[in-house]
Design goal:
- By secondary structure, the protein is mainly α.
- The chain has 2 domains: 60 residues, Homeodomain-like (Arc Repressor Mutant, subunit A), CATH 1.10.10.60; 139 residues, Tetracycline Repressor, domain 2.
- The chain is built from 12 helices and no strands.
- It is globular, with a radius of gyration of 22 Å.
- It starts with 17 loop residues before the first helix and ends in a 5-residue tail after the last helix.
- Keywords: DNA-binding, Transcription, Transcription regulation.
- This is DNA-binding transcriptional regulator, AcrR family.
- One of its GO terms (molecular function) is DNA-binding transcription factor activity.
- InterPro entries: Homeodomain-like_sf (IPR009057), HTH-type_TetR-like_transc_reg (IPR050109), Tet_transcr_reg_TetR-rel_C_sf (IPR036271).
Length: 222
């Protein structure tokens, strides 16, 4: 009778999947994301990960797919402003909750395409409401830029301490007059960035309303 221990059948470990690996990547964070860090978090080998992702770029794509797949879709009812506002906040939260995701989207085209696909669904919803296709693309692009810029800032600010924020404001101001002026910047640098972002989004949406083509005013702008 053989005393050789039984060998595990070849193939992926039963508990591993692309989705589980993506969740681990999100938990690690995009600023520190490596195959090694994900393998360590999952107590898995690199070989086990490679059965589901081909390299770090593919790992990023899997994580972004997971994030975007969890975003709420544009509402089926409501006016154009509600549609754009919902779309903006969905993406804003993704960027705010995941510092560094904006950088990997710039660096990895396949990951960027995942977000573009989500944006296309927003454009289609605007067209269904009555927006001219060209203006629907422009409006969606504007709110996506807002979400990336403002949400990315929120993620960075949230990672900073209150003392670091106060020190940054102090260094930026040399006298009392500037200190008073920069007092208004406290909202932009607050760890609770959403109220400031809401003010910015309102300005963005007001601008879209003010510049909507005349053919859309009666059917879409409320």
């Amino acid at each position: 009778m053989s005393t050789e221990p039984p060998r595990r059948r070849p193939g992926p470990a039963p508990r591993l999947s692309r989705e589980l690996i993506a969740d681990a990547a999100i938990a690690v964070g995009f600023t520190e994301l490596t195959l090694a860090s994900v393998a360590e978090r999952l107590s898995a080998t690199h070989a086990a990960l490679y059965r589901h992702v081909t390299d770090r770029d593919d790992l990023v794509v899997a994580a972004v797919e997971r994030l975007v797949g969890g975003l709420p879709q544009a509402p089926e009812s409501g006016d154009w402003r509600e549609v754009l506002e919902a779309g903006a906040w969905a993406l804003w939260r993704m960027y705010a909750d995941n510092p560094g995701v904006d950088q990997v989207l710039c660096a990895i085209p396949a990951a960027r395409e995942v977000v573009i696909g989500h944006t296309v669904s927003l454009i289609r919803r605007l067209c269904a409401i009555g927006f001219d296709p060209g203006y629907a693309v422009l409006a969606a692009d504007i709110v996506v830029d807002f979400a990336k810029s403002s949400g990315g800032t929120a993620g960075l600010v949230h990672a900073a301490s209150a003392a670091e924020i106060r020190a940054a404001l102090a260094r930026a101001s040399a006298d009392q007059a500037e200190n008073e002026l920069l007092g208004g910047a406290s909202g932009a640098l607050s760890r609770d960035h959403r109220p400031w972002a809401a003010r910015k989004l309102a300005v963005v949406l007001d601008g879209i309303a003010a510049n909507t083509p005349p053919t859309q005013e009666k059917t879409s702008v409320k």
